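User: Can you help me understand a structure? I only have the sequence.
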Amino acid sequence: MSISTLTGPFVSTGNTSPLQNTESDAAPSLFADGHGIVDSRFVSSIGTAPGGTRVYGISSGSLLCAVDSFPTAKATNNIAAAQGSGQASGFVLTLATGTVQSAVSAVPLVPFVQTTDIYGNRAFTQQGFLPANVVTTGLCLDFGGITGTTFTSSTVTFSSNTGPTVGTWPVQYAGQTVNKNQIIVLDTSKHVQPELFCSPGTYLIIANAGNAGGTAPLLAQVLAVDFVNHYVYINTPALAAVSSGGIATANQNGATPGIAASPWNITGCAAMLDPRQMTSRGLQCVSTNAGDTTATLTVRGYDVYGVPMTEVLTLNGTSVVNGKKAWKYIQSITTGVATLNGNVSVGTTDLTGLPFRADAPSYAQIYVADALITATTGFTKADITPVATGTTGDVRGTYTLQTAANGTNRYSVYQNLSPFQLDIENNLVQQPIFGQAQF
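Assistant: Let's start by predicting it. Here is the structure, written out as tokens:
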């Protein structure tokens, strides 16, 4: 492929006038391997000796908004309540029934699968969004990007104002009265205009509203948004009234849209990773018996992208043991090595995962409650052990909140992807940005 050289400037305007033809694929521009600055000393040699077709430049890293969320408070037993006394090795703990946000049960997921090329490069790719590929997960931690309340009766009326961000969108729903069980009233105490989380056509997963017992999520598509009353109108009625339940996006494309959690939002022809849904958490475990010092817990599940992962925790009696890896989905917890003397509890900690590999604190700008964190306390760099195991650290790095999460404090992370990492990252060599292959 030949090189295209432009003198610039290059301007992409989008649809700035309603008189223009609508371009349904209009989206942010995406560039492989970051951006670069042309080295002006070599411009005159483009296409000639000694550079030939080579263009010399300087890599320019990007500061990315990686996380923008409100982590819920840690808990000692929101993953698995005290159980297992007298059980032999191989006992599978019963996971908690779940909450409406901190640990939501039965969230559907299409996991990534591992591939290995002829050179031994291990990579993870997402399977197609087909019903056969969907896994019903045990628990999803810090579920969703916004929260809202569902209802099972009555009616509501949309605002008569019209238009995105200021009224009802699409306009044909303005002033209409609809069944309230197809309405989600969004919480406005956190994100400004939570309605911006979705638009008409977006597929959503709403925690605990999918059955009368409030134990299954609801899969639905957005029909309209009311920015005045903070309503989201969905095509499928809620079967349970849920207060401040987590709301996540489902896959917006694929052979079967809307069937599994997917933290990417469609913007034109592009799907952009959503930092509001990128919170992952560390685990803690403890026994009620001081003699449980050799028994292990093998945790299996998935990271924030849906990549399978495993962690092995060794109990230390009645002393709390904290894990090192950041989890999004918990699928199972199995005991090993020894018979349990006491009951075991598993919960979450204030350890949070970094969505992109960070090799030093300077590669991450972290804000808690909108205040920039200047101390490095709590930061743990990415574990670059060549072959990850159940006891190695997190492959992308973590930060342990020094101000405890409470579901109210905003937690924002901006990560700088270094030029030398961007230079060699590609679809086969993913480690420079996404860390070593998970175990």
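Now, to help you interpret it: The longest strand covers residues 344-353. Residues 1-60 form one domain. Let me know which part you'd like to focus on.
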